[in-house]
Write a structure and sequence with these properties.
By secondary structure, the protein is mostly helical. The protein is built from 2 helices and no strands. It has one domain. It starts with a helix and ends with a helix.
Length: 31
């Protein structure tokens, strides 16, 4: 799994719960 694939998987997972909510680790990954 590439970094991009992981990022997309996290985006989909978050979308199931709170749209627009990103945990701190995801914010770091997005920098």
């Amino acid at each position: 799994m590439s970094f991009r694939d992981a990022q997309q998987a996290v985006d989909r997972w978050i979308g199931q719960y709170k749209e627009g909510y990103f945990p701190p680790l995801t914010n770091l990954a997005r920098l």
